[in-house]
Amino acid sequence: MPELPEVETVRKTLHQLALGKEIKSVSIYWENIIKHPRDPEEFQHLLQGQTIRDINRKGKFLIFQLDDIALVSHLRMEGKFGVYDSHEEKPAHTHVIFHFTDGTELRYNDVRKFGTMHAFPKGEEAVNKPLIQLGPDPFDEAFTLNYFHQKLKKTKRNMKAVLLDQSIVAGLGNIYVDEALFRAGVHPERIANTLTLEEAERIRNASIRVILEAIEQGGTTIRSYLNSQGEIGMFQQKLLVYGKQDTNCVNCGTPITKMKVSGRGTHICPQCQPLHTHG
Prior knowledge:
Layout: H1 4-18, E1 23-28, E2 34-36, H2 40-47, E3 54-58, E4 61-65, E5 69-74, E6 80-85, E7 94-100, E8 104-109, E9 116-121, H3 145-153, H4 159-164, H5 174-184, H6 197-216, E10 257-261, E11 264-268
Parallel strand pairs: 2-9
Antiparallel strand pairs: 1-7, 3-4, 4-5, 5-9, 6-8, 7-8, 10-11
Helix pairs in contact: 1-6, 3-6, 5-6
């Protein structure tokens, strides 16, 4: 699944490939992807004649800033965007095509069909679902230690669940949560309100570092995810625990183990991340 660094890489790529292009028309082949407005014809009408002025990102959402419209898109499990010449063959699983006036197309491809698109009048995207439900990105100024620690003190959920909660911090997914908790030396099953301020600071700092490093490397490619130009993210070569079960911990040599936490496959070093109540 694309996480924040992968989505940021897609954003940068599309920024190079699609900025300044005017949408002549929109073809929709799988209507369930269009969430707002619910009527696909209204969606098509809103985007017709609009030019892509900028492409932003919030958490794992791409935000296409058009003339009067903000198009909010979530790639979910396996969604991909690509820019093609209109005469190029349409691959299977292409569900939405934005036809540009210059003869190129922005195509949305999604094997699982879980992706979403919301179109709002510009400015309204920030005060409506889904974006209004998101917490700050890890490197946003709003993601302060005080903010994070206050959130932890209010919940008895485990740290894996808390970090995956997009309303607390946006953009962290399974891979980067495992990596951040390993770097912070905190067990994913630790109950959030038992963490000390110092432990909260370690997790916050590790989350920021791991996300920024992954953005620098173009994200992590696990199985089928590629960015919008088909390039592979290189951060997978720097993963310390995710997918490393039965290999030795880089810090202490203890074998990495895999377990289920909050229903997700979770990778830890039992030595470096002991499960205890206080730091």
